[in-house]
Design a protein that fits this description.
The protein has a 30-stranded mixed beta sheet that branches. The protein has a domain at 509-619. It has ten helices and 30 strands. Strand 4 (128-142) and strand 5 form a beta hairpin. The chain is an alpha+beta fold. The chain has helices spanning 19-50, 53-68, 118-122, 155-167, 174-177, 242-246, 289-296, 363-369, 461-468, 518-525, and strands at 71-81, 87-99, 102-116, 128-142, 148-149, 180-195, 201-215, 220-228, 231-239, 251-259, 262-271, 276-286, 309-318, 321-331, 334-343, 351-362, 390-402, 405-417, 420-430, 433-442, 450-460, 475-488, 501-514, 531-532, 541-553, 556-565, 569-577, 583-592, 603-610, 615-619. InterPro entries: AsmA-related.
Length: 627
């Protein structure tokens, strides 16, 4: 019995070639390789005699003309070589077209180099690749429809139209899909983009770029640098559908750019025609806002104090609304997040709506961004958001400020429709108490008037007075409530303070009027006809209740009532305060309170002059009848 797995295998064929046959195959391979190498060398040595430079020149001119659909002229063939790769260098390439009977130059290239296929050149139809353009100067127009107008009825133009049509469900251009390009290097170029609708032109100079585009139907990738004015710019782009992108239709892109002190990244679907993005992640960071704004020639009201800014969001599009989801931003180190939407409304202005949570909000910058120059910081009004869109914003901030006034836990809403705007600040922590405010007005920068209502509850009156920066004069210290209602006429309340009218009320329990001494007033009034307030001393006037109501208009305030009741004495004031001139014209009465010294006589006086240190003149008591 034969043991399974063992036995005589001599009859099986060998798994290896015999030595003689193996040597024969190696020799054949070497002969083939040597033959190919010999043919290649012979072709390259004989190519100058077999390939006509005139044929190559004519072929590349025809190729460029076929691509752009316009007339192409070439001054000279500077060089044609065949080692290590067949390559031709041309000079003085010009692309022109006739518009309204006049010849218009679309592009010029000082030197153009391109590789070509040797076999195809021998057949009289050379194929070109690996283009190098030195000092090209190209003119591009952006039409009123947003499309780019440069090519005409050439291969590129036909391919773009076919790609856009295919994206919309039409038929693609199969011939154009097979066109090959290769790599394109641009050296020291210049591109001028002219927007037909606005007439504005943008010039990119010093363009240096490397583009890898194997064929019209293939993806494109590239990077480059150029200058806008004196500002350096670098860009990187990748797209699987470059023809669709050139045609202005929505196309997938992965792009980044740096300009001045800012960087931007875009990944998603964008449209050059609509200047829009959808299902796209954007990431913008500006490390020097003033420098970047100056470089781009952009100025927007409300950004004057910005130093750094950044924004990240995912842009989506549904029907007529663009949404910025997962929105995160940072301004001067203050972070925020939320959601923002821009809705297009046919026949009306777009509506910008958002719900945002912010670390810190500068309210006067927000108002400045809406062209409300409350502080008159700009001599020339900058364009504001409300010039282009309606707004409906919901804001919350851990901290906030209006000028020098700090706030915490702020909640606010801002609604703008047409030329009307309404800002509401809900109960917000302010100077130890709360503040609520409402600002509503019409016109650009409220030039048609505005109404302001502010209510402060249980706030630190001393802190309020010190932040108002009233120079000299008596000052309140204590806790109280303040109501302020005013109507503004014209823009900027500092410049138009005399046009403001309204009412001010102050109510307080248990405080002090610093800079006023009742004892000093009585002492000096006993033997002097007049004296300055500062001469009475700095004892202060402690009060248990304070109730003041003032109406104002045309730069002057009328004191309707001012009753300040202390432990032993009561002070009453009436008269006018010409605040536009920082002056006083009041009559006062100092009398004994209910639990004071009833033997003291009432004292009447007049107080007038500059409110920093007014003059007091006692009013003599009237004699009783018969005396």
């Amino acid at each position: 019995m034969r043991n399974p797995g063992r036995g005589d295998h001599s009859s099986r064929p060998s798994s290896r070639w015999p030595p003689g046959r193996r040597r024969g195959m190696i020799k054949l391979a070497l002969l083939i390789a040597a033959g190919i190498l010999t043919v290649s060398i012979v072709l390259r040595l004989s190519a100058p005699y077999l390939v006509s430079s005139a044929v190559v020149r004519s072929a590349i001119a025809s190729s460029i003309a076929a691509w752009v659909g316009h007339e192409v002229t070439i001054d000279d063939v500077a060089d044609i070589g065949f080692w290590p790769q067949p390559e031709i260098t041309l000079t003085g390439i010009k692309v022109t077209r006739v518009t309204d009977g006049e010849t218009e130059t679309l592009g010029q290239v000082d030197r153009l180099s391109a590789r070509f296929g040797l076999i195809s050149a021998l057949a009289g139809r050379p194929d070109f690749s690996a283009f190098r353009l030195e000092r090209p100067r190209i003119q591009v127009w952006r039409g009123v429809d947003g499309g780019l107008d440069w090519s005409d009825q050439g291969v590129l133009s036909d391919a773009v139209r076919a790609a856009v049509a295919a994206k919309s469900g039409g038929q693609t251009n199969i011939a154009a899909d097979k066109a090959e390009i290769g790599t394109v290097d641009i050296i020291d170029g210049e591109v001028t983009l002219t927007d037909v609708a606005s007439g504005a032109s943008f010039i990119a100079s010093g363009v240096n770029a490397n583009i890898d585009w194997p064929g019209l139907a293939a993806p494109l990738s590239g990077q480059g640098t150029f200058r806008l004015g004196d500002t350096p710019v670098s860009v990187r782009l990748q797209t699987p559908t470059p023809l669709v992108l050139i045609g202005g239709a929505a196309s997938r892109v992965d792009a980044s750019a740096t300009i001045a002190e800012s960087s931007a990244e875009v990944r998603g679907t964008v449209s050059l025609r609509e200047a829009s993005a959808e299902n796209t992640d954007i990431n913008l960071r500006i490390s020097d806002v003033p420098k970047t704004a100056a470089a781009l020639g952009l100025r927007l009201a409300g950004t004057e104090r910005w130093r750094t800014a950044a924004i990240k969001a995912r842009v989506t599009h549904a029907e007529d609304e663009w949404r910025f989801e997962n929105l995160a931003f940072e301004i001067n180190g203050s972070r925020g997040d939320g959601i923002l939407a821009l809705r297009n409304r046919p026949g009306d202005r777009p509506l910008l709506s958002s719900t945002l949570a912010i670390d810190h909000l500068q309210l006067d910058d927000l108002l400045q961004a809406l062209s409300i120059n409350v502080g008159d910081r700009a001599n020339v009004r900058l364009p504001g958001l409300t010039r282009w869109v309606d707004i409906d914003l919901r804001l919350s901030a851990a901290t906030a400020a209006f000028g020098v006034f700090p706030m915490t836990d702020l909640g606010a809403s801002l609604i703008g429709r047409g030329d009307a705007l309404n800002l509401v600040v809900a109960d917000t922590r302010f100077l130890g108490g709360t503040i609520a405010a409402r600002l509503s007005g019409t016109g650009e920068g409220f030039d048609k008037g505005a109404d302001v209502a502010v209510n402060m509850t249980r706030v630190d009156l001393g802190g309020l007075m010190s932040r108002l920066s009233l120079d000299g004069g008596p000052s309140l210290k204590g806790t109280g409530s303040v109501g302020f209602n005013a109507k503004l006429v014209g823009t900027g309340w500092q410049r138009n303070i005399e046009g403001m009218s309204g009412r001010l009320t102050i109510a307080s329990d248990n405080g002090v009027i610093s800079g006023f001494s009742a004892n000093g007033l009585r002492r000096l009034a006993a033997d002097r006809a007049y004296f300055q307030l500062s001469a009475t001393g700095n004892d202060g006037f402690d009060y248990r209740t304070l109730d003041i109501a003032v109406s104002f208009s045309e730069g002057s305030a009328e004191v309707e009532r001012a009753a300040i009741i202390g432990e032993r004495e009561k002070l009453d004031l009436s008269g006018i305060v010409p605040y536009s001139r920082q002056a006083l014209a009041l009559t006062g009465a100092l009398s004994v309170a209910s639990n004071g010294d009833q033997t003291q006589s009432p004292l009447s006086f007049f107080i007038g002059g500059a409110w920093s240190d007014p003059v007091i003149s006692p009013i003599p008591a009237r004699s009783a009848p018969g005396q």
